[in-house]
Structures are given as C-alpha cells and as structure tokens.
Amino acid sequence: MSVGLPFFRYHPDPLASGSIRASADKCVCCDRSTGWIYTASFYTAQEINGNLCPWCIADGSAAERFEGEFSDSYGLDGVSEATLHEVTRRTPGFHAWQDPHWLVHCHDAAAFIGEVGYTELATHPEALEQLRLDLRMSGWHDAAQLERFLTHLGEAATVMLFRCTVCATHLAYTDAS
Predict the structure, then answer these.
(1) Same domain as 63, residue 132
(2) pLDDT (tens digit per residue) in 101-120
(3) CA 159, CA 173: separation in Å to the nearest integer?
(4) Which of 2, 27, 150, 170 is most exposed, with minimal Cβ within 10 Å?
(5) Considering the entire predicted model, what is its pTM?
(6) 57 and 4 in one domain?
(7) 147 and 111, same structural domain?
(8) Of 57, 77, 96, which residue constitutes the final position of a domain?
(9) d(C-alpha 138, C-alpha 30), whole Å
(10) What is the mean pLDDT of residues 69-95?
C-alpha cells in the first residue's frame, strides 16, 4: 500500500534523493508493511536486522527504540537542541561517499535537496560561488584547476545541495569517492 509519506522539513524529498524507496518489507520498529523503507545510514550500536519505515523515522520511535541517529551532528553548530534532535533523530539521512553532514544557514539547519552535478549546481549561483570560496579556503589556489574540477562534477566527485529553510539561499559541499 502506498500511503502519503510524512513530511520532513529538513529532507523534503527523500524519494528523489533515494533515501526512501517503495518496498513491501516490514519495518523492524513498528512491524508494519507501509509500502516504503529507508535506505540510507542509521548509526546505532545495536544490530538491526531489517528496514525502518518513514513513519518510525518521523515520529522518532526508530531512533528511540534503537538508540541511534540518522545523521551525525557534525556541521550543525549554532542550531537549537530541538533542531539538532529533529535532524539527527527524526529526519532521513542521505547517501554519500564520505560521511554526510548537514549545512546550516540563518541559525537553522538547511533542507537537503539532493546530490547534483555541475549543471544543476550552476542553476544556483549563490551555492556555486559559496562552493568556490570554500574550495579556495581549503587549498584550491589554481583558478583554472578549480573550474575544471567544478565543471566535471558528477564524475569522481559530486555536490550535496541544500536550501536555507529561512531565506531560501542554496548551499553546497563536495563529496568525493
């Protein structure tokens, strides 16, 4: 059965990102077959044999029952405890080559939009410029080399795109294999 998914403020389209997909599997938390399962990371010391449904993520029961988190708190500096809890324990994480992390803007966690390449990133010039600045600050001093890297995103590296939940500014960081 395909019931409407719960809304996740900080991950508004988990189907598009691949974090949730259709499945007849039962959820190991609520023991229901909801038509959907979670496919990204869940950090816990417990062994979980099975999948979690979006509803057990949204209401926090999966994180509580299995004492785990869907995302690391890295990058969430300056947000409220409630927001930190919402992102790490009640929001689906996302797939990444490196450890995924959330971006912050306007003192709130940003909404994860998805993994994009250069073409999609270029439609958000503020995110592209912010990414250029971040890469320069991390050691990319050759401008031509930096532009080659950016225009070839999607090959050995990709970009995680976010949108500020307050002002709608787009933000990004690179993720490489």
Answers:
(1) no
(2) 899 999 999 999 999 989 99
(3) 6
(4) 2
(5) 0.91
(6) yes
(7) yes
(8) 96
(9) 44
(10) 95
